[in-house]
Amino acid sequence: MFFQIDPDSGVAIYDQIARQVKYAIAKNTLRAGELVPSVRELAVKLAVNPNTVARAYRDLQNDKVLEALRGEGLRVSQEAAAHCRLARQTNMEARVQRVVIEALQSGFVKDEFIGLVESAWQSLARSKTIEKQSIPETP
Amino acid sequence: MFFQIDPDSGVAIYDQIARQVKYAIAKNTLRAGELVPSVRELAVKLAVNPNTVARAYRDLQNDKVLEALRGEGLRVSQEAAAHCRLARQTNMEARVQRVVIEALQSGFVKDEFIGLVESAWQSLARSKTIEKQSIPETP
Amino acid sequence: MFFQIDPDSGVAIYDQIARQVKYAIAKNTLRAGELVPSVRELAVKLAVNPNTVARAYRDLQNDKVLEALRGEGLRVSQEAAAHCRLARQTNMEARVQRVVIEALQSGFVKDEFIGLVESAWQSLARSKTIEKQSIPETP
Amino acid sequence: MFFQIDPDSGVAIYDQIARQVKYAIAKNTLRAGELVPSVRELAVKLAVNPNTVARAYRDLQNDKVLEALRGEGLRVSQEAAAHCRLARQTNMEARVQRVVIEALQSGFVKDEFIGLVESAWQSLARSKTIEKQSIPETP
DNA sequence: GTGGTCTAGACCACC
DNA sequence: GTGGTCTAGACCACG
Fold first, then answer.
1. Which of B50, B53, B65 minimizes the C-alpha distance to B13?
2. Cβ pair C102, D135 in contact under 8 A
3. I want to staple A113 with a disulfide (CB 3.0 to 4.6 A). Which of A108, B52, C58, D139 is the partner?
């Protein structure tokens, strides 16, 4: 598959996997009805413990994003796309809100902060390897 | 004192304390040479175990932000302000960068994202209790 | 493992542990990439509270000597050896300097003092249990 | 008086005071029968809390180094010189032994260590302000 | 199994 | 009164 995990980012690996699967669905890189890679296969590709992949897939099943086909594998569900797009929006709002609260608490003014955001966006958006960027999260 | 901790935010309490002390110094609410509240006193105010406050203060001593005066208390060091202001900037840049990377990865376009940020800022900035807001961390 | 702590030496136990880990790395008894004993395991061996070992390990992580592998253990970092060898040298210089200052202040002459050092070295070096010697600290 | 204390050395201030009094007696700078400065006077000179000086003097009385003359002050006792010279020797032996043990534990060889001691001695002995040197101790 | 965090309560040295 | 250390035991997230 196409994504990357960073074991030192402070975010649980299973969480990184689950999120990137959701993003892929939200972006239509992965579509309803498709099979995701098997636990073992993905574990090998990401150089990660199979248990960790299994946990990510389990969480995705709980979220009704994946569904098990006995003896076949895990399939992206029909409702997944809607769910993932919604999740994308909600998660991003929550994340933005947290950072904004921190910024307010530490005394930033609005323009100073927006400036920070824009300059980060500029510098990151032009990097062509953006999709390979790991996501340094935060402890 | 002036700050609040949220035991359910997912951020370690000692970390919330340490950060808010740094912010207070960066904002000049707390100045070089002043004594911070005693471990026991702050523990009572925050309804937290004294060991937890002690751990925050110990970390701040490692960062050269506080210095111990035996039998007297803990004092804000002279270098603290510079360090804390720098940390404020650097930390915020790092946090913003992480969110921006996530946004890019999940397919946001710039204006959509900036819009999210601005609306979050608007709604949070006008809340008068902003300083009492807990910092809901990690989704 | 191979080291000993003395709870009555006046030196904090966590500090004795951290120092001995560093020494082991400086001496190549412990090498980059290896896992150190788990917190609980070492706590049992040293007959010490696990929190105390955890504190030592935490300090070593702050010093970039150890790094955490989630759910796996703590690993000696790559930079550790250099750091520890440097620390060994610097610490010993500092300790020697303090004693020398005391000696000068209390009116020793050089040969008298060197004699003291040599006789101490002789008598301690031939004891075969040297590595098991506790470090009686502070008079 | 002639000595210096370092509140950040990790050694208790009262202990620094008591030791320096003993050293002065061992060196005959202070002689049997002389009065030591009053608690208040010394406290002012050293910029230290009078309680701290009082504690040092109390310890020295326990050691029979000083004796109280009601309404007059504290006098260096007759036995003091012998006691202090003995203490000088014994303390230095103990300190040297501790450092030597550490050196052995951290894998120094004899010549390497003696070299360290000699170079420290050289560089410190020629400093003219040697008597004003504070004694950085260390915990 | 691993480390990380927190609480509770104790004892110490220092001022 | 202050900070520092240690113990005991609990719970959590992670692999």
1. B53
2. yes
3. A108
Closest C-alpha among A73, A74, A85 to residue A24: A85
CB A56 within 8 A of CB A24: no
Q: Does D50 touch chain B (CB under 8 A)?
A: no
B128 three-class SS = helix
The answer, yes or no, to whether D and A have at least 3 beta-carbon pairs within 8 Å is no
Mean pLDDT of A94-113: 86
Give me the pLDDT at residue C138, please: 41
Instruction: State whether the beta carbon of B71 lies below 7 angstroms from any atom of strand F.
Output: yes
- Residue A132's pLDDT band (boundaries 50, 70, 90)? very low
Domain tally, chain D: 1
Within 10 Å of residue C79's Cβ, how many Cβ atoms?
Answer: 13
Tell me the one-letter amino acid at C18. Answer: A
Chains that touch A (3 or more CB pairs under 8 A): B, C
A139 within domain boundaries: no
Closest alpha carbon to C1' of F2, residue: B71
Residues 67-126 in A contacting B (C-alpha not used; CB under 8 Å): 88, 91-108, 110, 113-114, 116-118, 120-121, 124-125
Instruction: Provide the domain limits for residue A92.
Output: 13-132
Chain C residue whose CA is closest to A12: C70
Q: B residues 7-46 near D, CB within 8 Å? A: none
Q: Is the pLDDT of residue A136 over 60?
A: no
Query: Beta strands A73-76 and B73-76: pairing type?
Result: unpaired
A5 torsion bin: left (phi>0), alpha (psi -120 to 50), beta (else): beta
CATH of the domain at C49: 1.10.10.10
State the angle between helix axes of C13-26 and C80-105 in degrees (0 to 180), rounded to the nearest 10: 120
Q: Please say if the pLDDT value at position A109 is more than 60.
A: yes
Q: Is residue D35 part of a domain?
A: yes
pLDDT at D124 over 90: no
- pLDDT, residue B110, reads 92
Neighbours of B10 (CB within 10 A): 12
